Fold each of these.
Amino acid sequence: MFGSQGLGLLLALLPMVHTTLPDAMVRLNKAALSYVSDIGKAPLERALQVPVPNFLDRSGKELQPISIQIPEIHVSGLHLKFMAGFGVHVSAMANFNIQILRVPEPLEMLLPVVLLADVRVAQASIGTPEVGVSSCFSLFSPASVLAGRNSSSPALLVLVQKHIQAALRNKLCLCISSLVQELNVHLGTLIGLNPVGPESQIRYSMANVPIITSDSISLEVKAVLFLLGKPMAPPLDAASFLLPWPMDTTGAMATVTLSQKLFDYALLLMQKAGTLNLDITGQLSSEDNLLSTSTLGQLIPEVAHLFPQPKPLVLKVQLGAKPMLTLHTNNATLRLQPLVDVLATSSNSAFQSLFSLDVVVNLKIQFSVSEMKLRGTASMLGDVQISVAASNVGSIEMDQIHTLMCTVFEKPLLYHLNAILGIGVGLPSMVDLHYASPEVSVHEGYVVISSGLSYQH
């Protein structure tokens, strides 16, 4: 838990924002604490390396300064435990290898120390997790001589031990407090913008104070989405997120729960940014090109009349209605209702609208996590529904053009959508922290990412 590898690792997954209604929740369990305990031993050993002033030996006629050094510290046990409603209790067992550079012969001693600290986890004013040591104690056991002849008097050795203990007692807790304060600076960097697209970003922050039980710590979080550097209001009709009960995620250290509301917010951003719009352009030089006035003219006589010479067609796909993502158990579907304008280039290279179509597309979405991002893959779900919205080429029989429009529309749409969904949305993260073997599950109204943790410096 110590240093940026410690509680920073434990709290790095906590998303960040500025309102009280949560969009998501992050829960870290006892397995996460155990992992932090394992990787926290080495940073703790380095942190406890403190100097000890010389001991003044007054047993002789003259004062004799005795130099004391600590060449090695071994943390044999580091244990973290949740404290309900408060934070984390820390207990560590450290063995201090101490060298007493006395005359005529140095002496090596082993001093066991038990460190106890209570760390409060709270919400900072800037919306980040904030940790602070509320109490700290160091308990010393009698030292044992490891090497060197024990030629010093027992009384002198007792005085030396008391001197070492007095020097270490306050310094050890100060070291821990200093590391925690340093950690708060590190945690403050978690409020950053993660890209969602070329012109959009997402920022997370804590919505409320942490919920801490004896088994886990949960943080409710809000997300703010930015378009062209400006925060965008969430959809007005988005339902409030009802936090689910803890799930059976055996083997997971962390669970990140993302609400339907958050997905609706992200889709609204994509719609307003225009990232879901696309142009599908025909090429006359292609042998299998179907997007031409000659192909369309075989189905619509007026098109053949207007364009006796073949011209390429352009399908201008623009999303008018808000995309609708539906989350059911083990099933995520996306409904798009774009307006497709069918255009042809005239002799002066200007575009001429032939007709427009109301289109309904249902897609199945598969979620995955890689590189600290939630990504998606879309596939067609059922047939594309098409109806004529307006026509400049007379009456159009849908039975005649349905197959053609579906053929030229589906593949480019899927390619475009998967390119966008493949970019992914950045999840709350910290430098050098990675999700280990993340698994994504879909539930009624929310998505859960269950994962281990891996810190790679």
Amino acid sequence: MANDTSEKTPLLDNEDDSSEYRRSREQVKSLYLKASSQKSGIIAPEDLYCRNTINISASNSNFQDIKEADYIVAIFVVAFDTRTGNIIEWCKPEDSDLDGVEFKAMASGSHTILKDFIYFKKDNLYGLSCFENMPVESELERGARMKSVGILATSYTSLYRHMQFLENQVRHQLETPGRYEQLRAFWEDRKGSLPMSNPGRSLLSPMTEIPRADMRITHPAGCFSQFLKFFGEQIFVLWKYALLRRRILFFSPPPIGVVCYRVYCACCLARHTIPEIPEKPLKPHFYVNIADIDRLETEVSYLACTTEKIFQEKSHLYDVYVDNQNVETHIPSLQDMLRLNDSDRDKYSKLLNQSEEVYASLPRTVSEELYSRDMEDDEVADDEQVFITFFTEQNNRIFQTLLDVASTSDRTLTMDHMRSMGLDPVRDRQFVMDLVELHGIDVMLVIDNPCCGV
């Protein structure tokens, strides 16, 4: 990969950038591109296998003394018992609070597929499990042996690098039930303890310790390109809902693993680097089931996915329901945002062109295998760079323009302001109204004067 990634990741066009916005663009490039321009600045998965905390010295980047919490607090095996259903067959430590994990680690409907992986949230912890369904000649097991092997950690950014081990172990547990030696060894080598300096505080935030480099280990190669390809232009419908911090629920029948990645990608749509607008990362719950209903009722903003169709009937739990590629909302003020406008299509075209430039520059074998977990990070880093940088810059442009208008004497948002933000002056009016209300930005939208466009 070329060292100068900015040449391969053109920025959004804006000839009238203010000096403040130009500075924010430089922040974006520094934050999201520079760490990936040199391989020594990337946190490689093999360098992250450690017990507690790691220090990375990125001599060719701005990251120094970067630390990531890597606390694995439990490892477990879930099995399907034909008499009692899902059970925790084995775990370390033995006194782990795994209440409900047996139904998260083995998603509803998993009996219909052979393999899957599931990301989920358990209280303030995040989990990853690998599931497999193996046919057996056993009347007691009704012809199928189903198990999941998983871990719980304090951050979802530390989970993906253990995927291959979990996949191997679930196959091992199916073929040789009751043999836990390798799991015990893994636990002894990787276990961590919760931070005890202040037991009352919340666990470490998964997105605050490493501004950019954490992204290298949270998804497989091609995750963002698959997300873009799957939703197409509708990605900008999801973008508006994510920026408004709505409750978004993705539905899909099993397998659910790839949908967990859609949850993760959707979280990235709302990123920005404008310091005057406090960034409140969307909460990824990943896989949820009916046992999570009480928790979801208390959330004002989240992203999650499910295999249980019953959620569609419980509209009080979500604002936006995504059934594969069909995006729906029952909130009247959000329904106009379902309709794409010319500004959305223009943004999509720019994003697509940038992505195609990246993929065209990759060797054919690389572009064909973008979704392989075995690829080198540096070969596909641009996949992530294009996506993250594009939406961060787009969001920066909107917020900086709104703040600039709020600092003027009349605080009036005009048609030209809307266009400079890459928005439709008429069709994106409700979106902007909701956005300024959400963040308490004091601007005047002239909504009753057609000549003003907003």
Amino acid sequence: MVMDIGLFGTLRKLKVTSSSLRVDDDFSDRLNHHYSGILLLIFTFIISAKQYVGKALLVLEHVNILSKNQIIIYIITLTGQPLQCWVPATYTKAMEQYAENYCWVQNTYYVPFDSGVPKEHSERRDRKIGYYQWVPFVLACEALLFYLPCILWRLLNWQTGVNFRALSRMALEAQSLAQAEVRARAVHSMASHVHDSITLCGSRPKNSGCCRRIRPCLQQALCFLCSKRHGCYLSYLYLIIKLLYLANCAGQFFLLNAFLGTRQGELFGIELLTSMLSGRNWEESGRFPRVTLCDFWVRTIADNHRHTVQCVLVINIFNEKIFVFLWFWIVLVATLTGLSFIAWTARQLVPASRTRFVVDFIKLANGSSGGGGGGGGGGLRRGEARLARQFAEEHLRSDGVFVLRLMAANAGDVVTASVVKELWSAFKKRYSNCVYDSDIV
């Protein structure tokens, strides 16, 4: 009972302190670096436990002091061995253990039951299956590859001065606090931080001479490195990170092909679907064989004797399910990431889309505060509409709108509308001498 209370308390703590409200990426990014990474680490733990924990506990089974410990025996039965071989009755227990250890280390080879065992050693060597020992390491490597773009993004996005961690904390406060004054202070802090970041980036000294003439050309090719002052550093960097996520998904397919030994020019999942559609039993295709053969030599004084034993790769039952699921999971992640990249490209590279986003939130903020200056439910006057376009394109610019979009996607429209209202009010004070029409747009 005490253990259950401690477990649920830990889970609640993890839920509260999770990074789900971190406003520096979207769901497709978290699907790559967070959910895919956790999934791969779980698979790594399962395979590692099957391979190494079961073998270690099997050794403990033969220790006299633990031979009567029912808990150890139960765990041994639960985990089992990754490989077990059928040996002749003349083998002793030590010989059987040696054969299984040797076959696990030196690989086995697959021959269908309806085919004869090859006599040539070279042909047996060509049929060898040598991936199962490396599965935990490959899965852990894949988890790291899914997380690398996120590391790169968080190493580079701070150069604009936008502190996404601080924005996450303030957004959480603004969402959870009921007092209007405390909530208003959190919103004001978020608006001030966004305003200071985009203002400082926009006030960098301009280059002169030949650098000023060369800069527009460099900006087109290396905009994510040289366009902080132009307000599009974050936007372009984020799109490049999206491309890295896509490149990682594509690389994962080739990694699985190379690791599993799929026929050249054919993806593992496509081969699987082809087998299923053609009516063949894909479980007996030889990709994850359950029953394999193993050769080992025993040195004697007179000569070396070769022994061939038949082994059961129990671990392949897990490997098969994991890699089949993983392949289709990568397809899903790649599809959602590609759609997200297209959506973000359209949002950030089209000026009209950026302006419409800002104007919509200004109207939302005006409507929630009881109307927009006599304009009937949050509408903008014509003069204000022109000023709003200037506010979006010249003041916020691409990076400011990008930060607000991420905030809306993670913290919600209410918090984002409050921040936009603060920024909009501060911007209008600088243009208080503008004359507005009475027309509503």
Amino acid sequence: MKIINGFWQKFDIFSLRLRLILGIALVSTVGLSGLAGWTTWKMQKILINSHKADISKIADRLPRDVQLYHEMMSVEISLQKAIKNLSNQDTFLWVKSSDQKIIAKSNNWNTLSPTIAIELMSLTEMSTQPELGQVNQHYFVLCGGNLSVDGQVLGKLFVVKDITNEQLMFMAMVRSLSIASIFVIIIISGIIAIYIQHSLQPLRHLSQMTTVISLSDLGQAELNIKNAPTEVKELTHTFNKMLSRLAQSWEQERQFVSNVSHELRTPLTIVNGYLQSVLRRQNNLNSTQLEALTTASLETERTIRLLQDLLDLARADNGYLHFQKQICDLNELISEVVKMAEKYSQRVIKFETINQVIAAKIDYNRLKQVVINLIDNAVKYSPSDTEIIVKLNLEDTEVIIQVCDQGYGIPLQHQSRIFERFYRVDEARTTTGGCGLGLSIVKTLIESMGGKVSVRSHLGAGSIFTISLPASALPDHI
């Protein structure tokens, strides 16, 4: 199966290389086949026409010779003598009377097999124009007509020339020519394939170079291919211009998000402060005012968190998101987060770990933020009567943190994209009020600490988010 997959990957039926090879091979095949066919037809025509000319000359000369001999001898002797003079090893003549009896024939019939001789002599009609015929796998040029002497019809003349050897040699030559043409087409196709592969090499290099360009490389990325055709150089120049425009657009977008997040966070924090101040004097408010102000305060806090997430992402994109890494006891960190989450979410959250201290070099507050985001995500997207399990394990040299829920699950086609910014699975996230930044923040923070995050999910069976970090030894003084 791997060999077949590798074959199809190497010979993509939609690739430009295969299309060019097939196109040129088809043109070569048609061209060589046409040339071979025309050559065959021309050679056969030359071969057959020369024999037809010989037969026509004999058919035209025989009556004159008989007439000439008849002046000195009887008709029967004259006819036999003329036939004898004009016949040779490959040419056979005979004359039939009106009642289909042979009145004269050449003396070389013993060179033919009896079966062929009998079949030839049994012919009653023959075209006056020479034509090619086949009798028992033997090839003959045949011609006939009425034989007249002194205005008297003696009978029907039959002239046949055996060209079996020439025809068989010609057919063998045609087969050899066909086989040679096939080999030439294969060789030409192979040479063309190598040449096309070499010619398309700059395009493959260009594709490989563009594949490895990431968002962080857009500003410095520049494609350059040496010794490339003019068209590829033009394409490379166009790509460089496009990358430059993308880099400018991306930089403007990041700057805009950073500026907006920074400028909006301060006034919203002030507004939230005033709302909290008013809510602390809620005795002066009626129930409608209290509800409105509480809703406004919650939405303000949610917007502030959103802006903080956007600001963190913008800082990470610009390389300004700083980490204070140190070796920490993860058992203690995750236990603290689980207790806090269980208290505020009023959900059953279990913490499972091995009976061993597990440590890693991380930013304490950032990892705490990651675990809180994942637990909050599990709380939002799982029924309230199901439990959430947080696992901490050590596998070889890696620390494994898992947050497991028994929620709705994530469709397979969405699992590869849920860590993208603002991406939401609508089927499961229509009532949660999320903005699609939580998992993107998780991925950014974990990768910045040298780890990886992944998800495994089944519809109706829940999801498991897994974080892996390099393990470290805990210092003795901790």
